[in-house]
Amino acid sequence: MEILNSIVSWVIKKRIHQIELFKKYPSEVQNDWLRKLLDQAKGTEFGKKYRFSDLKTHDQFMRRVPIQDYESLKGYIVRIKHGEKNILWPGSIRWFAKSSGTTTDKSKFIPVSKESLEDCHYKGGKDLLSIYYNEKPDSKLFSGKGLVIGGSTNLNTFSQRSKSYYGDLSSIIIDNLPYWVEYMRTPAKSVALMPEWEDKIELMAQAGAKENVTNISGVPSWNLVLLKRILEITGKDNMLEVWPNFELYAHGGVSFKPYKKQYEELFPSDSVTFLETYNASEGFFGIQDDFSKDENDMLLMLDYGMYYEFMPMTELGKKYPNTFRLDEVELGVNYALVISTNAGLWRYMLGDTIQFTNLAPYRIRVSGRTKFYINAFGEELIADNADEGLRIACEKTGAEVRDYTAAPYFKGESQGHEWIIEFNREPENMEYFVELLDNALKSVNSDYEAKRYHDMNMNLPIVHKAPKDIFLRWLKARNRVGGQNKVPRLSNTREHLESVMALMTS
Predict the structure, then answer these.
(1) CA 269 centroid distance within chain
(2) Quick count: other Cβ atoms within 10 Å of Cβ 410?
(3) Number of domains comprising the chain
(4) Model confidence over 166-186: pLDDT tens digits?
């Protein structure tokens, strides 16, 4: 393993030079990718429809091709699933990443081409390691094994003509890894891809407890379930007693803020690195590259077969929204992320909102979702505000949040926000916790503060303590347990909150 560690670390650090190049020439790299994507796809049905062959600039691309979402591309994707070729991207596509659905569909099926798998998703994982080794040259990461909670894959039964598969992105990545990578990870593929969540967690915990694990990756909420089960099995007080050589947790999917303290208690050492990543079924977008800051700003990855556009939230909902190029963005502005990819997603609005925290190089942080926010009273509360408010309230009370959801309430003349919070460690004084949360939200969001002034527009938040595993039960009821499935944190409607509330009272 030591020899392998030396070889692998040497190889992946060679990538740093290329990363430095796109940091130095960001606009040039992005313009090149736009031209490459248009040229590669000009012979597809979508490319012919919008005459990709004579598009040369961002402005031309923006004027001719409308903003897309899953609903507008669904007809094309259904045909691709049935085996048709050259629709959105050249050739056929065999893999589809299954993710949470839309208003009309239970699930979305995001196409994953060979190019996007190799040049985006896998490249992101390799770059994460390159960046880590560049910062930690004495790392022994490959002296042990990596652990990833995967989803499951299923044979596509939509058409007998098409031998294709769908599943969580994590399962697609695991299922296509080179055979030699199996020696560097745990558990066995047969366990990692099991569809039954409870059985998988138990087998992963049993296997992981016996391995020399140096790194893990994945969504904080799901990994927390696994790690706590390992502690139950081993009887140890923290994970470093189980994995003494542990170095790195690469996390993403949800904000790490509500979970950071719990993970610091699980891994009580300054030598353990918590590294933020930003990836989704549609692509890999960002990696934390500056380890000196507490803020988890991420380097925007510019050479992953993807072209970025940025839509100010003021443009959201317009028939012909304006988008900005990379060289036109400003610090601190909330942008909806729009991508064109080497899997055939064209001017696709991802649904995430980001803010730029640095422009040389371009660093970002995820601020929320275009659909998951609360703006019932003009308060414009986004997920980043909610996570920070909870972090402050927990820090001052010693509480620990496992999961939550929030929505507006209207009760006679009283109105405001209603929360359901599942705690790992409850605050001793719930009223004090709510007061702290309210004050913290005022401190991070001036619109919220204005609406809360003297209770004129909004009253104090209502907070319900949820019973243990209520959100797990809620996800189970919707067949969305594990992998990349997440609880909607904020909503402008009461649909999610009331369905959780109904489960609490049933």
Answers:
(1) 26
(2) 12
(3) 2
(4) 888 888 888 888 777 777 888
Q: Are 407 and 374 in contact (CB under 8 A)?
A: yes
* Phi/psi at 58 (5° precision): -60, -45
pLDDT at 103 over 50: no
Q: Is the pLDDT of residue 372 over 90?
A: no
Judgement on whether residues 151 and 280 belong to the same structural domain of the protein: yes
What's the rounded Cα separation, in Å, for the pair 396 and 58? 48
Residue 347: phi and psi, rounded to 5, are: 50, 50
CATH number at residue 263: 3.40.50
Find where tokens 């070729």 sit.
85
Would you give the end-to-end CA distance of the chain in angstroms? 53
Does the structure show a pLDDT above 50 at 428?
A: yes
Distance in angstroms (rounded) separating the CA atoms of residues 216 and 251: 8
Task: Classify residue 121 by its DSSP letter.
Answer: I
CA–CA distance, 32 with 282 (Å, rounded to integer): 20
Last residue of one domain, picked from the residues 230, 265, 298: 298
% the chain with pLDDT above 70: 92
* CB neighbourhood size of 39 (10 A): 13
490: domain CATH number?
Answer: 3.30.300
**Do 286 and 391 fall within a single domain?**
no
Mark whether 283 and 408 lie in a shared domain: no
Q: How confident is the model at residue 102 (pLDDT cuts 50, 70, 90)?
A: very low
In this structure, are strands 335-341 and 348-359 parallel, antiparallel, or unpaired?
antiparallel
Token digits for 260? 């950071």
Residues 6+ apart with CB under 8 A from 452: 438, 441, 442, 458
Domain assignment of residue 428, given as a range: 383-505
Task: Check whether 98 has a pLDDT greater than 90.
Answer: no
Q: Got the DSSP string for 436-450?
A: HHHHHHHHH-HHHHH
pLDDT score of 104: 47
Q: Chain-wide mean pLDDT for the chain?
A: 89
Lowest mean pLDDT among 103-107, 237-241, 360-364: 103-107
Strands 273-280 and 248-251, how do they pair? parallel
Does residue 361 have a cis peptide bond before it, meaning omega lies within 30 degrees of 0?
yes
Give the number of other CB atoms < 10 A from CB of residue 109.
23
**Amino acid type, 64:** R
Considering the domain architecture, whether residues 268 and 121 belong to the same structural domain is answered as: yes
Unique residue bearing structure tokens 């790490």: 256
Q: Are 70 and 347 in contact (CB under 8 A)?
A: no
